[in-house]
Design brief:
Shape: globular
Strand content: under 5%
Order of helices and strands: HHHHHHHHHHH
Structural class: mainly alpha
Radius of gyration: 18 Å
């Protein structure tokens, strides 16, 4: 089997297992038990599951995040960011990502809880970084200095907090929270003047910078 064919097979196999995982996670959470059950439902043995997903539920959690990233990008293909103000670009980008992840609300609730655990925090921050990076690139950001990191840290924090509001208080409250956060920071050129990264924000910036090129494997 060629390398390309192998990669295609692996991607298709991962997608099949993830489809089952999203159903099973609602009751079983993001656990090794769920990962084995999802692999079995997709036609794989326990040994094959461990080869395909060596980190089990963490691999599946990453696959779900990246599927949602892809879905958000697909939803944004018909939107020309150049025609929007920066605040409108960020609102459209964040909303597309939230709608993608909330297409599976129960599984996402368990997924968010899984990633909030201290043992999975680095993975959660890495995935938030990836999401923010993709959305900023869609929005036209080309920064390569320290702004590259601070923009992504701020947007990752917005993604995390807005999802938390949606899960706890519903869509309308989440969108109101999102609008409030965007209104508070306006365009990024004024982010640093209006919002100092303290506490969670500073931690996000530091950790995301460290894991940009590595860190915990997904």
């Amino acid at each position: 089997m060629s390398e390309t064919a192998h990669d295609d097979f692996a991607a298709e196999a991962e997608a099949r297992v993830l489809d089952h995982a999203l159903t099973l996670a609602s009751d079983q959470g993001w656990t090794w038990t769920m990962a084995y059950a999802a692999a079995k439902a997709a036609g794989f043995s326990a040994g094959e599951a461990e080869l395909l997903l060596p980190n089990g539920p963490k691999d599946l959690a990453a696959l779900w995040s990246r599927r949602c990233d892809a879905a958000a990008m697909a939803a944004l293909t018909g939107v020309d960011p150049a025609t929007l103000k920066i605040r409108e670009r960020i609102r459209a980008a964040v909303r597309a990502r939230l709608e993608a992840v909330m297409s599976q609300p129960t599984a996402t609730r368990r997924w968010a809880g899984f990633l909030s655990l201290p043992t999975h925090a680095t993975l959660g921050l890495r995935l938030a970084w990836e999401s923010a990076d993709g959305l900023w690139r869609w929005a036209g950001d080309t920064a390569t200095d320290e702004n590259h990191y601070s923009k992504r840290a701020i947007l990752a924090e917005i993604l995390i907090s807005t999802l938390a509001v949606w899960l706890n208080a519903g869509e309308n409250a989440a969108l109101a929270h999102l609008d409030g956060r965007i209104e508070a920071v306006m365009a990024f050129e004024r982010f640093k003047a209006k919002v100092k990264l303290g506490g969670v924000g500073r931690s996000l910036a530091e950790v995301l910078g460290r894991v940009r090129y590595g860190g915990l494997g997904a």
